[in-house]
Amino acid sequence: MSISRRNFLKASALTAAAAVIGVEPLTNSKVLAAAIQEGVVWHKTVCRLCGVGCGVMLGVKDGKPFGIKGDKENTINKGILCVKGFYLHRMMTAKNRLLHPLVRKDGKLVKASWDEAMNIVTSKFKDIIQKDGPDALAFYGSGQGQTEETYLANRLFKGYIGTNNVEGNPRLCMASAVGGYISSFGADEPIGTYQDIEHCNLFLIIGSNTAEAHPVVFDRLVQRKKDSPSCKIIFIDPRKTPTNRIVDLHLQVKPGYDLAIMHAIARQLIKDGYTDEQFIKDSVNFSNGKDPITYDDYKAFLEKYTPEYAAEQAGIQPGDIIKAARMFGESPTAMSMWCMGVNQRVSGVFLNNLIHNLHLLTGKLGKPGCDSFSLTGQPNACGGVREGGALSHLLPGHRVVANEQHRKVIAEIWKTSPDKIQPKPGKHTVAMFEAATKGEIKGMYILCTNPAQSLPNLNKYLPGMKDTFLVVAESFHPTETSKIADVVLPVSFWGEKEGVYGCTERRSQHLAKAVNPSGESRWDGEVLVDLAKRLGYSKGFEHFKSPEDIWNEYLKTTAGTDMDLSGATYDRLKKVRGLVWPVPTTDHPGTWHRFTSGDPYFPKDKAGNRRMYFYVKPDGKAVIFARPDKGPEEPVSAEYPVALTTGRILEQWHTMTMTGQIPELNRAAPVPYVEINPEDAKSWGIKNRDKVKVTTKRGSLVIEAKVIDRTRKGTVMIPWHWPESLTNILTIDAVDPGSFEPEYKVAACKVEKA
Amino acid sequence: MIIASMIVTTQTGMAEEVALQLKRIPNLTTHGVYKGDNIIVVMEAEKEEEMVNMSRYIMNEFEGILGTYPTFIANEDDIEETEEK
């Protein structure tokens, strides 16, 4: 008897869904069950898209991508995926895959051999170093590169070429979260994990459209609310979004005016007696950002932040602030989650601090169901860039270039001279591209990212990028960046190479190589080693033969640090669904809550009776900050009376390099649009689908109007995905002074019918 | 032919009603309600041209749905016929 292909696949599909829910397979046919396994090899890997870290099984048949299913063994997603992850295997074979090197000749990108392309890069880089010094070169990486790739690039540029101009696009999305964690708790990344969700009864979501940007986390929130009917969700965001479906209280704030609310909640928590005074005494210091202050000083500082004051700032009702504070205070557990709405702000670090303040005041931290938990936008922003130290001021293992001892330790591991690593931080991302516009940076190697679409205030930076000798290592072409490159190197895509991703919850997971690289594409690590050898650094790089070789060296940089990954060997990572650091030995299970007795580095002798000891701080105490409330860099004005915010939609990711290749996803939102509140649309004489012109001080965009009750009156929102309609022409490049992250989330604009 | 499965999560107590509504979507079959509020659905579509935004459509058109989560997708054309022996 033959089984039709269709029935075979239906059985596979049903079995996958049933397994996720945890019910018996829905087909009784043994033949079908057997057929499901026949000829298809499923490889354990991790989703290539956002930072949630979902486990994915990539099916391969006859050496080609066959299908995708969620990994039901993975603790993060337990088998479910979002609609984007669903199409990963199709992205592997997308029409825009770049299959051979390209070099610019007579103004046009033409096909070249690898040797020709690499010779051009080598020759130009050597020339720049000789004439203008190493700081005339820069590397711009990505939270999507695998840790091994980012580590190699960091090692080459900082440790051998000798420039700290090493940045990555996490500067544009997560840098404020890093600044917040380091200043409040002493070390980057969350204290808890996703596991806290299942123990939590009060979620505070701020500046995150979780339902669309992190759908699998949203599903865990949905399930938690179902499992615990008393569980509540507070939502602070300028827009109504699909996240509202499960929200109990929405504070729909004016974009950029939410800092005062956090202070007002803190004030109310103190006034209503919801603070954990023993925890504060044991584990908290207070600061005004410059000097230490007392708890009483902090209370006095908060007096300004009455619910009425904060409500007026944010354009909401004072009663809702009191209600939010009481919900937070009354719940025995609380978990805050945030994303770009908090980080992409000129006061991003401050706002991160203020979120942490609520947890420190109430002691809702470092125990089941309690955490101040930053959501991440990219799959390896935490792993490769933050932990790998691939920003201009960092070194691997939560070290900094400014620290002599740190430079010595890393130089020894990197087999280079400590003098080669400069003590002065390099240029942060916006400064780096500004230096390119001034001709100070003359050559740049861009790995796996698309700054010609993703930088803010694009009109200012595009000319400099075009003038710079630009090398782009990409799996896809054309992108806005590859189009203006001088050399485009075709590199392997997800599924064609192995490596490690580190996701939001400090979990490092192994990605399998399931198929051979497409066309002439090569693994980024191989390309970087090749470049290092051609630049004359063979001795420092020739021992790297595989991703595992690089990972093993990287592990040495983490040994003994608060992010110890020594126990996360390739052998182990291939078997398990990731490990959560610190994981100091190969028999250590990983760490749920840092800075508590379950943390292998928790100093019991120093901690005494303290429940939490922040051992990365000199006295083991975290800091509550009395930060001033600060509005946006560019408030609305008579000339630009509307607040512009940017955002994301469910079906697309970043600059659409990958998701834009999937027709099913494109059809969900086929044209770029601006969301306009119905009341505004009426008063402006704009109807749904009218063409409108959105103008800021930096440029204009003609775009379709989507009249919908999502943004508050006086605010419009444009998703930033579409390359044919560059939203970032409009955005402002003012940066947070601590994190140097730009304020993509707030600008002033005017809207008129086109 | 593209074949995919998905779990549709609904608000408490609404799964049976939503499942009934989903049955009216062409090329979509429901395969029961499990563990309270989870509906298993299998979708079929001819190539790329017909599989139009199923999950957004479901999310937008039907009351009571909290999320749609794919679990499997494959293309019928990519696999050989299997013989039972």
What can you see in these coordinates?
- The complex is a heterodimer of chains A (754) and B (85).
- Chain A has 754 residues and is of the alpha/beta class.
- Chain A starts with a strand and ends with a strand.
- Chain A is built from 27 helices and 30 strands.
- Helices cover 33% and strands 18% of the residues of chain A.
- The longest helix of chain A is centred in the first third of the chain and has 19 residues, at 114-132.
- Chain B is α+β, with helices and mostly antiparallel strands and 85 residues long.
- In chain B, 24% of the residues lie in helices and 44% in strands.
- Chain B contains three helices and five strands.
- Chain B has a four-stranded antiparallel β-sheet.
- Chain B is globular, with a radius of gyration of 14 Å.
- The two termini of chain B are 26 Å apart.
- Residues 79-85 of chain B have low confidence and may be disordered.
- Classes of the chains: A alpha/beta (754), B alpha+beta (85).
- At the A-B interface, strand 1, helix 1, strand 4, helix 8 and helix 26 of A face strand 1, strand 2, strand 3, helix 3 and strand 4 of B.
Give the overall silhouette of chain A: globular
- Assembly type of the chains comes to heterodimer
* Amount of beta strand of chain A: 15-25%
Q: Strand arrangement, largest sheet of chain A?
A: 6-5-20-19-18-7-8
Contiguous low-pLDDT stretches of chain B (5 residues minimum) are 79-85
> Biggest β-sheet of chain B, characterized?
4 strands, antiparallel
Structural class of chain A: alpha/beta
Number of helices of chain A: 27
Q: List the secondary-structure elements of chain B in sequence, H or E.
A: EHEEHHEE
Mean pLDDT of chain B: 76
Rg on CA atoms of chain B, Å: 14 Å
Q: In percent terms, what proportion of residues of chain B is strand?
A: 35-45%
Number of strands of chain B: 5
Overall mean pLDDT score of chain A?
A: 95
Greatest chain-chain interface? A-B, 60 and 47 residues
Give the termini separation of chain B: 26 Å
First and last CA, distance of chain A: 63 Å
The percentage helix of chain B is 10-25%
Briefly note the structural class of the backbone of chain B: alpha+beta
